[in-house]
Every structure is written in structure tokens, then in C-alpha cells.
Amino acid sequence: MPQSRDLFDETTMSFGEHLEVLRVHLWKALIGLALGVGVALFFGQQIIAVIRSPIDQALQDHGYNEEKIEDNLEGFDFWGTVKDYFSETEENLQEPNDSGTPLVPDHQDEVTSQAEKIDQAREDRTIKVQIRASELAAALHQLNPEAYPQTPAKAVEDMVTLRLESPYFARWTETSISAKKPVTLNVQEAFLTYLKVSFISGLVLASPWVFFQLWMFVAAGLYPHEQRYIYMYLPVSLTLFLGGAVFCFFLVFPFVLEFLLGFNKMLGVQPQIRLSEWISFAITLPVMFGLSFQLPLVMLFLERISIFKASDYREKRRMSILVISIVSMLFTPADPMSMIMMMIPLLLLYELGIIFCGISPVQRPFAEDFEA
């Protein structure tokens, strides 16, 4: 029986040294990831606004929102919240004096700010109504005939603007605006959504550095010709992935949302978008498109390891169309629009994969036309 030997006997590094190098690269990757997440936390509100833009625009196009949806995370400052938790805010009033006078702001800008808030509150309680001048005159005449004479029958029909003020108007306006916002169903959902978006964005931002550290560890064990394949196909893979994600975000989302919200409008249903569910949908679907756009490289890989030939791809087109339709069904939601929007580019990428396989096809040593 042959004795088992250490796989690292013929290498210049021991197994422990390999683990030490891996540990160093992993720590560098984690530090880069932490920095990326920190930057994403600082710009989290802007990132959420970008992710929210397709559903905002779709709701406006369908008339659900006459104005732009206000983000329920608007005004949320992660670092500001942390800072305010451990220190006093700048809005604290001065200590009361010995005479017991009430606390008042001592800065002119604070007084101006308070006046602006009062004016804004009064404006929120006010609505403008336009009525015909003849109707207003008739109502006043009915109220006090002596003070307000009856208007002639052929009076000019001018419009008069009235300002009505009531605290209920502000409540109605606030209720109307709140109904147009995405909702959260528990206390921590908005905060967890903010952290989720920041982590994923930080991972995307730090991904070049993370992949570089992993590549520095893996490349040490590859031959030069094996590294050449990585340098050749990795840029193509990244281009296809980013192309699929951009295609989904800017072209697929408008059609899918138009299709789905159209059913809400047809049935007379008011859509109430949950923020966390939309964020998950807006992140997952572009990733699925990016992965599916790797089809030409998958076809080329199978051709290079002699599982398929370019002629096999041409002869099995009908079967490939069926497989692509099934993959599109699994990678997209239940609506047919997103499935079709994935299936059409995949059919084009399938033809591109055939072209890739036809360029310098691999020679098979057991083929009849093989040249030694």
C-alpha cells in the first residue's frame, strides 16, 4: 500500500505558511470592506434615493403621486444620530437665569427659524378655494340682505380666491402625503434596511480591492498560462455582468413596473409599497440579470473543455431556446414581462457565445482531423 504523503512536500511553502498568507490577505480584504461600508453609511440616503427612483417614477406615471415621493428615511443622518446620542445637540436652550425667566434662544438666526416655522405651520393649516363672485355675493346677500345688496342677473362671472384656515387641513395634508410614502411594518425595519443597503453598496465599492486580495493568494498557485486565462476572460465577465445589471435597472424596471402597476390601476387598487421589499427586489433582479449575461462565457468554457462544440450549439437551438426560457422564468419574478425582457437578450447572447466558440476552436487529440 502506498504511503500517504504531504501534498506540500514539493512546494516552497508549508501548509502553515499558506494559511498565514491567506490570513493576511483576508484581513486586508476585510479592512477594505469595512472602509467601503463606512463610506456607504455616510451616503446611504443618496444610495436609497437612487434605488428608489424607478418605483417613484413609475408611481408618478400612473398618477398615484402628483409629487415626488418623500423618502421615509429623509433627514436620517447615520453619523449625526450616533453623534447626537453621545453628546448634547446644538438646539439645547440656555440655562435659566436667577430670576426664573423662561428659556429663550439668544441667537437671531434661531429667532428667525422659529418665525419661519410659525409661518410654515400657518401655511399648512390654510387652503385656497376659488368660487364665482356671483355665488359669493348671493351667499353674503342671503346672510345679511341689508349690508349686501343682491347682485344683478347679468353680473360678470369673475373668480374669487378665498383662503380657509383650519387645523384639520394640516392633518388632511399630512395623511395624504403619508399615504404616498413606502411603509415599514415594524420599528426597526427602516434602520435595518438602511444598514442592508449600506453593506451591499460598501461590498460593491470595495469589491475590486477584495477580489485583488483573493487573486493575490490564488495567483501564486497558478502557472503563467493559467493566469493568462484570468486576465483574458475576467474583464469580459465583468463587462457582461455590469451590462446585465445596467440593462435591468434602466430598461427592464420601467417595463416591469408599467406592467405590474397597470393591474393595480385596472382593478382600482392603491399600491402601498413596502420599502424593504422594494429594496430587495431592486437589488436581486439586477444581480440575476448580471449572472444570466454570463451565458457566452459559460458556452465558451464548455466548448474549451470539449463537452460541446460550436456545431452542437447550432444544431440544438430549439432545445437551447427552451432552456433559456426556463432559466428566465426561474431568475425573474412571476410576471411574464420580466421573463420576456430577460429571454430576448439571452437569445442574442447565445448567438454571441456561438461566435466566441467559433474563434480559434480547441483541438481535440482524439478527433479524426487532429494534427499532431
The total count of strands amounts to 2
Number of helices: 13
Instruction: Tell me, rounded to a whole number, the average pLDDT.
Output: 77
**Gross geometry:** elongated
> Which regions contain 5 or more consecutive residues with pLDDT less than 50?
66-75, 88-95
Order of helices and strands: HHHHEHEHHHHHHHH
Largest sheet: 2 strands, antiparallel
Kindly report the spatial arrangement of strands forming the biggest sheet: 1-2
Q: What is the structural class? A: mainly alpha
Helix content: 55-70%
Q: Rg to the nearest angstrom?
A: 33 Å
- How many angstroms separate the termini? 38 Å
Strand content: under 5%
How would you describe the overall organization of this protein?
The protein is mostly helical and 372 residues long. The protein is 65% helix and 4% strand. The protein has a two-stranded antiparallel sheet. The longest helix has 44 residues. The radius of gyration is 33 Å and the shape is elongated. About 5% of the residues have low confidence.
Layout of secondary structure:
Blueprint: H1 15-42, H2 44-61, H3 78-86, H4 108-124, E1 126-132, H5 133-143, E2 159-165, H6 167-179, H7 189-219, H8 224-267, H9 275-292, H10 295-304, H11 310-315, H12 317-331, H13 336-358
Antiparallel strand pairs: 1-2
Helix pairs in contact: 1-7, 2-7, 2-8, 2-9, 8-9, 8-13, 10-13, 12-13
TL;DR?
This protein is mainly α. It has 13 helices and two strands, in the order H-H-H-H-E-H-E-H-H-H-H-H-H-H-H.
